[in-house]
Specification:
Blueprint lengths: L4 E6 L4 H16 L3 E9 L2 H7 L7 H18 L6 E8 L2 H12 L3 E5 L7 H6 L2 H8 L4 E4 L10 E5 L10 H11 L2 E7 L6 H17 L4 E6 L7 H11 L4 E5 L15 H8 L4 E4 L3
Parallel strand pairs: 1-2, 1-4, 2-3, 4-5, 6-7, 6-9, 7-8, 9-10
Antiparallel strand pairs: 5-10
Helix pairs in contact: 4-6, 9-10
Length: about 280
C-alpha cells in the first residue's frame, strides 16, 4: 500500500484561500493516496468575527464556529474521492503552519496570498505565504490568481547561476510525471559575460530531465529593457502558457529594482498570475 501523501491547505476564508483549496484538489486528484488537511489559524479574535460575520463570542465559541465552517467546507469537497480532515489552531499564522507541518509530516503546503503587503514594515518582513515558504521543509505552492489551473501541463523552470537553483530538478521531474506535463527551462541573460556559462547549465539540466523521460525545452532569453529577472521570467511564463512555476527558496535580498523591497522569491510569489512552487534547498 502506498504511503499517504499529505497536503496542508491553510484556510482564512478569503477568496485567495478558497482558490488555494480548489488548486489543492487538482494536485490531490493527480496523486495516489492523497489526503488534505484544512487548517484555520485564529490569529486575532476580532478580525475573525468580522470576517465571518459572527456575533461576539468568547474564544472557545469562536473556535467552535470556525471548526463548523471548516467542516462544511470539507463536506462540500468530500465527493471528489479525496479524504479531507480539518484543524483549528490559534497563534501566529506562519508559526502554526510550520508546527502543524512537522506534527503531521506534511508533504506539500498549498496556500493563497493576496499579493505584496501594503504596510512598509510588513513588506520587508514578508507575507504569511512567504514566511511559511522560508520556514517549512516541504514544498509550498502559493497562488494569488483568480482562476484555478485545472490542469498542470506546462511547468516553468527558471534557472539561475546558483547551485541551489538545480535542487528543484528532482521536484520538477516528480510533478511533471504526476501531471504528464512538459518542462520549459528558462534563464534570463541579464549578464552577457555569463551567457556561455548559463548555456552550459541549461544544456546540462535539459539533458538530465530528458533522460528521465520528460518532454523538456531550454531557452536563454534576452531581457526586456528596464525589467529584472522576475518580470522577464513572468513574461516568459505568460507567453508560454505556464501552469506552474518552480523556484528555489532564497533568503537573499537582491535585484532591488525588480518590484522593489524584498527578494526575488517574494516578488515571484506576489506578482505571478499562476501558482508558484517554492522548494527549500537542502
Amino acid at each position: 500500500m502506498a504511503d499517504t501523501f499529505k497536503i496542508l491547505v491553510p484556510i482564512g476564508f478569503s477568496d485567495q484561500s478558497l482558490i488555494a483549496l480548489e488548486q489543492a484538489m487538482v494536485f490531490a486528484k493527480a496523486i495516489d493516496q492523497a489526503e488534505l488537511t484544512l487548517v484555520t489559524v485564529i490569529e486575532d479574535n476580532s478580525s475573525f468575527r468580522k470576517k465571518l460575520n459572527l456575533a461576539k463570542k468568547d474564544g472557545s465559541e469562536l473556535k467552535a464556529e470556525v471548526n463548523k465552517k471548516l467542516q462544511e467546507l470539507a463536506e462540500k469537497y468530500a465527493n471528489n474521492g479525496v479524504e479531507i480532515k480539518t484543524m483549528v489552531a490559534k497563534g501566529t499564522v506562519y508559526e502554526e503552519i510550520g508546527r502543524i507541518t512537522d506534527l503531521l509530516d506534511i508533504n506539500l503546503v498549498i496556500m493563497g496570498t493576496n499579493g505584496k503587503p501594503q504596510n512598509l514594515r510588513k513588506r520587508f518582513i514578508g507575507s504569511n505565504a512567504y514566511r511559511t515558504a522560508t520556514l517549512v521543509q516541504p514544498p509550498v505552492v502559493v497562488t494569488k490568481g483568480i482562476e484555478v489551473k485545472s490542469q498542470i501541463k506546462t511547468i516553468i523552470f527558471p534557472l539561475v547561476l546558483d547551485r541551489r537553483s538545480k535542487e528543484k530538478v528532482g521536484p520538477a521531474v516528480k510533478y511533471a510525471r504526476l501531471f504528464d506535463a512538459s518542462i520549459k527551462i528558462v534563464s534570463i541573460n541579464n549578464n552577457p559575460d555569463q551567457a556561455k556559462i548559463l548555456r552550459g547549465h541549461l544544456k546540462q539540466v535539459e539533458s538530465f530531465i530528458a533522460d528521465h523521460g520528460i518532454s523538456v525545452s531550454a531557452e536563454l532569453v534576452e531581457p526586456e529593457a528596464g525589467n529584472g529577472v522576475v518580470r522577464n521570467t513572468l513574461k516568459y511564463a505568460a507567453e508560454n502558457d505556464g501552469d506552474l512555476i518552480i523556484i528555489t527558496e532564497d533568503s537573499k535580498q537582491r535585484d532591488f529594482t525588480d518590484y522593489f523591497l524584498g527578494t526575488d522569491v517574494q516578488a515571484m510569489m506576489y506578482h505571478s498570475d499562476i501558482p508558484v512552487m517554492t522548494i527549500t534547498p537542502s
